[in-house]
Structures are given as structure tokens and as C-alpha cells.
Amino acid sequence: MQKAIPTLASRYAFKLLANVASVPVYLLMEAILPRALGPHMYGNYSFATSVFQQLFGFLDMGTSTCLYNALARRQAETGLVAFYLRVALAVFGLSLVLALCMFLPGVGGLLMPDVPIWLAPLAAVWAFFTWWGRVLRSMNDALGATVSSELVRTVISLLAVGLLCLLYLGGWLNMGTLFGQQYLMLATTALGYWCVTRRSWLQSGIVPCFRLTNAHLRAYGREFFDYSHPLFVQALLSFSLLTAERWMLQWFDGSVEQGFFALSQKVSMACFLFVSAMTPLVMRELSIAWGQGDKEAMGRLLKRFAPLLYVLAAYFSCFTLAEGSALVALFGGEHFANAVLPVQIMALYPLHQAYGQLAGSVFHATGRTRVLRNMAALECLYGFAAAWFFLAPANLFGLGLGAVGLAVKTVCVQIVTVNAYLWLASRFIPLAFWRNLAHQIWSLALLLGLAFCSRHVSMLLGFGALDSLPRFFVSGLLYTASLALVCLALPSVMGLTRQELREIFLRLNAARRQ
What we know:
By secondary structure, this protein is mainly alpha-helical. The chain has helices at about 10-60, 65-75, 80-100, 105-110, 120-140, 145-170, 175-205, 215-230, 230-255, 255-275, 280-290, 295-320, 325-330, 340-345, 350-365, 370-390, 400-425, 435-460, 470-490, 500-514. The longest helix is centred in the N-terminal third of the chain and has 53 residues, at about 10-60. The relative contact order is 0.10.
């Protein structure tokens, strides 16, 4: 019997609640690591894991997205997963070989300057578990098992952060125990996701079979190759650019600046947790709509969710920018005082990350992967030029800005790239590009004004020093209340009309009465 799949709204609601529950866990974890490791070792940890995370992004080459789209349309076809299990094993084996190559004389010192080489295999295994857990989670989204999947993630995350706190308070937290804790958390999460996948199949009356004939292997290989081979260039260029810019920061400025930039990345990721709940679900609906040949439905999805997700990201990003010094004091302490400006700049990164994932979903769902390849090639040119300009020293025609420079490059390049994707998407689906661009500008200006006003008022009210927690929370309350009033008075901030806002309240009221 075919199991009932929850609606998009209910799946997003649960995914959002799971992300809300994970925010304190994430914040606590990221407040512990910088303090326990210090800027230098935290920079080494961040650089090593980032290199291998980018490597897995390259070795993936869009195959996991192909699996997601195919499984969303053919949920009973367990052969897709059986084939991809073989792909994952091959990717894992190759990554370990590359990690061990770091021990060759001269190789590790060149590719991972001033970083202990023994971190390479540890980081490779960490990156595999991280990537594979993401694949399994997307499989559950494709099967409509989002609720169970997010419940697994929430429970294991709570247990994992409890273990991390125990290690920290006991004085046992170092690089070795940190990787052990991460392996345990990631492996257990992946196992939980896999159990959810199997149960979803069994509830639908599907008996999974992982034995494939040579004909099946060739057919699946051809399907994945046709989808992903245009992305090879994109994956290679993205890997090269992202790895090169982190390498340049390490080479020119060292592990401490690497630690400052890593902290700014983690804070920006915390801002994005709420938005990330929605993007894979919208991508699933876009894939289904394209499979049905319904471009109008794709346009409606983007029109409804793109501005809403942008403002949701902006809500956290603008407050983070205004309260950068307080957040750095909370996350990293006095040793990370010089990370304030990178954190404030990177706070703007989640804004266009939301738009970027939605725009990229359009091209993945429609199979227009050549567009992604061509855009990646173009981004590599101006992205690398910008990275060199901001990171290289003056004698090499750069500004030598360190973590600040990489933060500026990251945000500016993403704004240009994402809006290029949106414009290209508007060429074949009904999407008002210029209206979206205008919304990006005026809504950001409005929220930034509210955030800085709330910060100023909280200081005038005398709730403590600039970096004190009482003043920080009061500022957050003032900011939230003022934004809520603005959204009620001006629904277009969220991309809604007054009629649509009225309908939402009527539905919520009806749901409350039931």
C-alpha cells in the first residue's frame, strides 16, 4: 500500500522546527571549539576539513543531485540507491588515497602549509561521513520521509553536543578526541538516516534489492553520466577556486587568519539553518513540476518562496551584522577579537545563498547542467581574480586583507553569481527577475536599519555594555518586534500581498480551532 506523504507545508514546518531545535546545539558546539582549540589550531582544523570537504564536492560532480531528482520521480526504484552505494565506495577509496599522498615528501608541505600532515586522513574520513550523511538525508526528502529523518538528526545532535560538552568540561577536548566525537556523531546519524529510508520503502510495500546485473549497471551509469558529465567542469572549477582561496589565505596569512575566517563562516552558517530547511523540499517540488511539464507551477513556487526565504535569511543576517562584536565575544572570546569585521561581512552570505540554492535547483531539476558548467567557468575567472586581489600582498598586486579580504570576496562574488543564475532562470520559466532584484535591495536596507536602531535603543536603555548578554537579548527582542510590525503593515517585505497574508491568518485560525 502506498504510504501517505505529508504536504510541502507540513514537511517544511517539521524541518524548520528541527532546524530551530538544532540552533542551540550548533551555537553551543561552535562556541566550544574556538575556545578549546584557539585561533591557530582551530584554523588548522578548519583548513584541513575544508580542503577535503571541497574534494568530496568535486568527486560528487552533481551525482547526488541526480540521485535526488531521479528518486523523487521513481521512488520504488531501489536500484538507483544500489548503484549509488557503489559510487560512494569508489569516492571514499579515492579520497583516502589522495589523503595518504599528503605524506609524500614535499606534497603535504605545499598543499597544506604549516598544517600537521596527520590531519589529512582524519579530515578525509570526516568529510566522507559529512557528505554521505547529506546524501542519505536528501534521499529521505526525495521519498517524502522528511519528518522521521529530521527527528533522527535532532536526537543525535543533542546527544553529540552533550558528549562534546563533557569532553570540554573534563579537559579532554583536543584534536584527536574532537575527531572521535565527530566520527561517532556523523556515523550514527548516517545509520539513522538509512533506517528511515528502509522503513519508508517497507511502508510503501517496496522490498529493496541491491543486486544489480551488468545491464543495470550500464543503464544507471549512462543515466548518471548523461546528467553529471556537463558538471565535471563545474565541479572541477568550483573545487579549484574554493580550495585555492583557502590555500592562499593559509599561505599568505597563516592559521590564525584562517581561524578568524572559519569563525565567520560558522556564524553565517548558523544564520542559514532556518532557510536550509526549505530549499531541498522546494527543489523536490520543482523537479516534480518539471517532470509534469508545468513551468507555471515552477514559477509560482519561486515567486512564493524566494522572497520569503530571502527575508528569513535577512532577519538573522542583519541582526548578526549589527551585533557582530557581541557574537564574536560569545563564540570565540577575547582571542578572536580581530574576527569581528569578517563575521559582520560574512553575515550577508546567507542572503544570496538562499536565492542561489533555489536558482540552482531550477537548473538541476530541469537537467540544464550545461548552464551550471558555463557559469562555473565564468565564476572561476572573476572569483579567482577577486581572491588574489584581496588576499595577495602589495608586492604581488594585492591588498593583503587576510580574513577580511576573503569575506569580502566571498559575499561579492556570490551576489553577482546568484543574480546571474536568477536572470538565466527567468529566461525559460515565469520569474520576474527585476522585481526580485529590487526586493533584495530595499528589504535588506529596511532590515539593516531596524537591526542597527534596535542595537542603539538597547544601549540607550542601559541594559549593559556593548558585548553584554542582557543588552544583546533586549536588542534581539526589539528587532524581532519591530520587524513583525513592519511585516504586518507591509506584507510585500515577505513577498506577499495583503490578501495572501489574510489567507494565511485564516488558515492558522482554522487549524487552531480543529
